[in-house]
Design goal:
With 145 residues, the chain is of the alpha/beta class. It has one domain (2-144): 5'-nuclease (Rossmann fold), CATH 3.40.50. It contains seven helices and five strands. Strand 4 (123-126), helix 7 (129-137) and strand 5 form a beta-alpha-beta unit. It is globular and about 40 Å long. The two termini are 16 Å apart. The mean pLDDT is 97. Residues 4-136 form the PIN domain. This is PilT protein domain protein.
């Protein structure tokens, strides 16, 4: 199984919300060598920003360093064992995303998820129904978490 996680799916690994159990299973499968998780490098920065915002909103900013370390630790460990691929953010990747912005009215960050999933022949995992619909319209498999 090869899954491209968008930021909304990735954050569910670290913040308990609807869909977190499914994302946890994806990470367990990756750690067990049964799945490869794919991220665009942009997702890592966007997830850190989302985690920072979540802990501030919850009134618990002291939790951010621990969540940041968990996320970065997962990326390092899974990349090292070959169960995660981090795709660099390049100008060509952004340009490849533009048609999805135009066809589906997506924000460029969401369009980038479709481009990344297509480039890596991955199923897209997202918490965003509009993005999932657009991915399916582009011929991708998509899992709404």
């Amino acid at each position: 199984m090869r899954l491209c996680l968008d930021t909304s799916a990735l954050v569910k690994r670290y913040v308990k919300e609807e869909g977190s159990d499914a994302v946890r299973r994806y990470f367990v499968a990756a750690y067990g060598g049964e799945a490869t998780l794919v991220l665009n490098a942009f997702n890592i920065g966007e997830a850190l920003s989302a985690l920072h915002k979540a802990v501030r909103r919850a009134g618990a900013p002291e939790l951010y360093p621990r969540l940041k370390n968990r996320l970065l630790g997962d990326v390092k460990r899974l990349t090292r064992i070959g169960s995660m691929k981090v795709i660099p953010l390049t100008v060509s990747a952004v340009l490849a995303s533009a048609p999805y912005v135009e066809r589906h009215g997506l924000y460029i960050a969401d369009a980038l998820q479709i481009a990344t999933a297509k480039a890596t022949a991955s199923t897209l995992a997202t918490g965003d129904a509009k993005l999932c619909d657009a991915a399916r319209a582009e011929g991708l498999d998509c899992v709404l978490v």
